[in-house]
Specification:
With 528 residues, the protein is of the alpha+beta class. Helices cover 65% and strands 7% of the residues.
């Protein structure tokens, strides 16, 4: 429910990410005040130039005003340059922090969270939504204050010069503010729909790139293009609908702003002509200059609610990731000394969805040093047993013990470091062969990597590559064959010398001869 979003809470929470950069924020703010104040001086100098200098034909005063204007704009340019740099540094630092925290949270979420959401949707939150928040954070930390100070400063000058014209100039302001509220209410659900359409497009993109071989194998290029285009058209239509509303709102606001200026021109011009003692030409020009600048902050605050609504939608998506429950690690810091590897299932039930049990009252014991095979039809729950041992999911009922300890009470990192796991579908990262093997033990030596590769019968084919262990495997290991990828993943699992080894049909992708060699090597490795 987008209307339920408390925008004040969103703003307060976003400001928490500014706290680590308070000093930099104040530096930028100080520079912003200078950059805001300097342009307010020239209109007053213009008034003096027209009413006094030109009227008296004083060349000395003329050159003084010209030099003053040169210095003002020179310093304004210098301070603007510094402000631009530090503002960029501030905004990029804030968004780097937010994006890093979002990515960190993504890594620590449960697999159940990923089961319910597409890859493209999560990517959109970490990338697109944080990017949208970047511009809003600048608006929030700098522009709001600067525009407010500008508004106050201009109003002081305007009322000082002529309070009646000043009152006349603010007549359109309530209408502009009221109109912006109505506009924001209409646009709120539109931004939400735009986000959903964008998320669906990213989901299609996220599926099509990793699955490009399947798409090409079944000549599905046209189908996926059509699917992506359909979502793109929906997004385009949403943008166009939003553009129609914006094309009505923006010119209307501009007309109201211009109307205020026309009123000043009309009444001010009338006074200059009929009552020159009431208002001079220089004062009128200076006042019009200030009035033109006055409506800039007015329009800013009129549109700010619209920006806030867009940012609230993005913030909600990012905060959903940040607030999602991470994997529970109730046994943090609890280790088992001299882990043997006895595994016990005690009356374990499990279901991915309520009412649909995959495992029903499972009890079994695997003794240390014992090798067992789990046999069953597709969908009978073989891989689910593995997922429960690794605590990817928690049992619905019952418990699982290792060496007599409930795995829920064991440190989850310790548990997984002592389990070597080879997936049914090997997945390699876009990196070198060596770095893919070393992933299970980052501090391993190259000798240990080679030994693990030899046990997995991978060393021979690795050294045939020109770059050997430094060979890049490509996207998801695409440069290697299925059997080669599987042997690298087996080497990765063996490198850490795990106490428990789980092979989820790990030799399904290798030929019979290689499978025999791997089994013989594993028998040697598993002794003891």
């Amino acid at each position: 429910c987008t209307k339920c979003i408390d925008k004040r809470k969103v703003v307060r929470r976003l400001l928490q990410y500014v706290k680590p950069y308070r000093k930099l924020t104040f530096v930028v703010l100080f520079l912003s005040i200078i950059v805001t104040a300097l342009p307010l001086i020239p209109p007053m100098l213009t008034k003096t130039l027209i009413d006094d200098v030109i009227a008296t034909r004083s060349l000395d005063d003329l050159w003084k005003i010209v030099m003053a204007l040169v210095l003002i704009y020179l310093f304004d340019g210098i301070f603007s340059g510094f402000r631009g740099y530090y503002l960029s540094k501030l905004s990029n630092s804030i968004i780097f922090n937010l994006r890093t925290k979002a990515f960190e949270s993504v890594q620590k979420l449960t697999l159940k969270y990923y089961d319910k959401r597409s890859t493209g949707s999560i990517m959109s939150r970490v990338s697109n939504d944080t990017q949208r928040l970047q511009s809003f954070m600048i608006t929030l930390t700098q522009s709001v204050i600067i525009q407010l100070l500008t508004l106050i400063g201009i109003m002081v000058f305007m009322f000082y010069m002529d309070w009646q014209l000043a009152l006349l100039s603010i007549i359109p302001v309530p209408i502009v503010i009221f109109g912006s509220q109505i506009y924001a209410e209409h646009m709120r659900p539109r931004y939400r729909r735009i986000w959903r359409r964008m998320s669906r497009m990213n989901a299609i993109l996220g599926d099509s790139i990793p699955g490009i071989r399947v798409i090409k194998a079944f000549t599905g290029e046209d189908r996926v293009i059509e699917k992506y285009t359909k979502q793109g058209e929906d997004l385009l239509n949403e943008h166009l609908t939003a553009a129609v509303k914006s094309s009505i709102y923006s010119p209307l606001i501009t007309f109201l702003v211009v109307l205020g200026s026309i009123l000043i021109w009309g009444l001010g011009g009338y006074w200059v002509i009929t009552r020159p003692d009431r208002l001079s030409v220089g004062s009128l020009i200076a006042f019009i200059n200030y009035a033109g600048r006055f409506y800039g902050p007015v329009q800013f605050f009129a549109n700010f609610n619209d920006q806030l609504q867009q940012a609230s939608t993005s913030a909600e998506r990012v905060f959903e990731i940040l607030d999602a429950d991470p994997e529970p690690n109730l046994g943090k810091g609890n280790y088992i000394e001299n882990l043997q590897g006895k595994i016990e299932f005690e009356n374990v039930n499990f279901s991915y969805e309520k009412g649909k049990n995959i495992l029903k009252n499972i009890s079994l014991t695997v003794q240390p040093g014992e090798t067992i095979g789990i046999v069953g039809s597709t969908g009978s729950g073989k891989s689910t047993l593995v997922n429960l041992i690794l605590r990817f999911y928690e049992p619905t009922e019952g418990r699982i013990k290792i060496d007599g300890h409930d795995i829920a009470d064991i440190d989850i990192d310790f548990l997984r470091k002592n389990i070597g796991y080879v997936l049914q579908e090997p997945l390699l990262f876009r990196d070198t062969i060596a770095n893919n093997i070393i992933y299970s033990k980052p501090d391993a030596t190259i000798e240990e990597v080679i030994d693990a590769a030899k046990v997995a019968n991978a060393h021979k084919f690795i050294i045939k590559f020109p770059d050997g262990y430094d060979t890049e495997v490509g996207e998801r290991g695409g440069r290697l064959s299925g059997g080669e990828r599987q042997r690298v993943s087996i080497a990765r699992a063996l490198l850490n010398d795990p106490r428990i080894l789980i092979l989820d049909e790990a030799t399904a992708s290798v030929d019979t001869e290689t499978e025999k060699q791997i089994q013989e090597a594993l028998e040697q490795l598993m002794k003891g």
